[in-house]
Write a structure and sequence with these properties.
Layout lengths: L3 H4 L3 E5 L16 H12 L4 E3 L28 H6 L5 H5 L12 H18 L3 H10 L4 H13 L10 H4 L3 H10 L1 H27 L3 E6 L8 H5 L14 E5 L9 E6 L3 H6 L3 H13 L2 E4 L7 E6 L9 E4 L3 H10 L5 E3 L7 H10 L3 E4 L21 E4 L8 H7 L2 H11 L7 H11 L4 E5 H4 L30 H13 L29
Parallel strand pairs: 1-2, 1-12, 2-3, 3-6, 6-9, 10-11, 11-12
Antiparallel strand pairs: 4-5, 4-7, 7-8
Helix pairs in contact: 7-10
């Protein structure tokens, strides 16, 4: 975890989901391609690598709808590393279908192909003490998660709220019976989490040694079909049958007449306050072990949140309710002093939300694609920034900047071109990048698609849609060239954002042979 005051100095980073890394096995992973990416970031003089949530994905393959707020996605486990460890053989990998398009992640094919391989590795794994240590260290969540996943498989993938009542309501006798009946399956799911965190920990250590901080992402809400809600129903707004009473979403606005129906269960904030928000504290602590910096998604929901009656077809009939506000922030800051947190404060911000952000001390976000509204001056225009913020050209929920110039309202594009002094949008993407890097924002984060000047096909997600294109984009092998790293480094240096150099390790004196010569052969 990075110290809050230390990491928020003038610097730059790149946003690239782990899933988007190139690899021969259908999706990004924690092996060689990830280390090559870290090397690219270092060569480009970057300070940060921002990723999306790393939890096991569920509905629509969205990392913001995960089966657990604590677990990791087994798809990111690097298979070559398992071969190196003797848990798999290369011939096993060659016989597996990884999807037809190397530029897109085919999640259905990946899950179908990966599970048999991970089960082969599980059968060969012979380090029970390591697994026991892992279970003990993560006992607060991993046993519930592993049982949840074993039961989900037993029920054909159906959500937990459609299981038989004894298991759905977690009656002790039913849970004891299930743990005994599915012991092997539970052990397998614990094993996949062990692999995930071993490989991720090694990658994070490698990045930190290169002077790179990793920014993670915590969705404010958890999926209704998750081990978190199943194991801790008392924390959520559920009735006696564990059915939600109200769910999360966004009200209607100029972009959506019906608003956005997210469907996530809402927290019982008043009850959470009684134990000092203990579940959330554990979650933030776990995340800041995984990452150096944590972005809390939908931060404005801590001040007030939009609640929609369960069963409503749209978000039209919801209403605003008060969130925990500074009580929550104080609890986090007390439990994790100096926590390095970014507040995702995008959207309609009331004076109360602005006050909460200011009192929290967390930096908020600015997005250049939101800056050039032809109807009114925007807070996202660079001349309106305070330095204590993080600026992006766009996020995972935005179109690529190249595509923005053709898809945004022409009047907004005209404002942007006028602001940047450009006759047309030919150099528009790089002009946006220069605006971000040249701004007073302490941290500037650019999506890799913008550095590659890619079009709409490289968009990561279109909000309020569920389709196979979302979350599937992958960077082509060889796209992160040495020439591009040099160009990014030059611009990063030009705008005073050069990364902090890692402290060189002290050289140890060479061992001497009998005659005072180095004992190393050939010296």
């Amino acid at each position: 975890m990075a110290n809050q005051s230390a990491w928020m100095q003038r610097s730059a980073g790149i946003l690239l989901p782990v899933s988007s890394l190139p690899s021969p096995y259908g999706i990004g992973a924690f092996g060689k391609a990830a280390k090559d990416w870290v090397d690219f970031l270092a060569a480009a003089h970057q300070r940060c690598w921002q990723v999306l949530p790393l939890g096991p994905t569920s509905f629509g393959n969205s990392p913001y709808q995960s089966y657990s707020a604590f677990a990791g996605e087994p798809l990111y486990i690097d298979l070559d590393l398992l071969c190196k460890d003797g848990l798999l053989k290369e011939k096993h990998l060659k016989k597996t279908d990884w999807g037809e398009d190397p530029a897109k992640a085919d999640y259905d094919a990946l899950r179908k192909g990966r599970e048999p391989l991970l089960k082969k590795a599980f059968e060969k794994f012979d380090r029970p003490k390591a697994l026991t240590r892992f279970r003990k260290k993560n006992a607060g969540w991993v046993e519930d998660y592993a049982l949840f996943m074993a039961l989900k498989a037993q029920h054909g993938g159906r959500p937990w709220y459609e299981w038989e009542e004894d298991i759905k309501l977690r009656r002790p006798a039913a849970l004891q019976k299930a743990r005994k009946e599915f012991t092997r399956e539970i052990d397998y799911h614990v094993f996949t989490q062990y692999l995930f965190f071993e490989q991720w920990g090694a990658l994070k250590k490698y990045a930190n040694k290169k002077g790179i901080l990793i920014i993670g992402d915590a969705p404010i809400y958890v999926s209704g079909d998750s081990s978190d809600v199943w194991a801790h129903p008392q924390l959520f707004q559920l009735d006696e049958n564990n059915t939600p009473t109200e769910v999360a979403g966004c009200p209607p606005d100029a972009f959506s007449a019906d608003g956005q129906m997210w469907g996530n269960p809402l927290y019982r904030w008043d009850d959470m306050e009684l134990d000092g928000f203990a579940w959330w504290v554990k979650r933030v602590q776990a995340n800041l072990t995984m990452f150096d910096v944590l972005r809390i998604d939908h931060f404005r929901g801590l001040e007030s949140y939009y609640a929609i009656p369960y069963g409503e077809p749209t978000a039209r009939n919801g209403r605003w309710r008060k969130g925990p506000g500074m009580k929550f922030v104080d609890a986090i800051n007390a439990a994790v002093p100096g926590a390095a947190i970014i507040a995702e404060d995008l959207g309609y911000l009331t004076p109360a939300v602005r006050r909460l952000l200011k009192r929290s001390g967390f930096p908020g976000m600015k997005v250049l694609q939101f800056a050039f509204d032809s109807r009114e001056e925007s807070d996202y225009m660079p001349h309106n920034y305070q330095s204590h913020c993080v600026v992006y050209t766009g996020t995972h929920d935005n179109d690529t900047t190249r595509s923005w110039f053709t898809s945004a309202p022409p009047a907004d594009v005209a404002v942007a071109l006028d602001y940047m002094g450009l006759p047309d949008d030919k150099e528009g993407t790089w002009a946006f990048i220069r605006l971000a890097l040249g701004s007073v924002a302490d941290l500037a984060v650019i999506p890799m698609q913008d550095y590659l000047d890619l079009g709409a096909f490289a968009r990561v997600n279109t909000p309020s849609t569920v389709n196979s294109e979302n979350w599937s984009w992958r960077m082509e092998k060889g796209a992160a060239t040495k020439e591009l790293a040099k160009k990014i480094a030059r611009m990063t240096d030009l705008y005073g954002r050069a990364r902090f150099a890692p402290k060189p390790e002290e050289e140890k004196p060479k061992k001497k042979g009998k005659k005072g010569k180095s004992s190393k052969k050939g010296s």
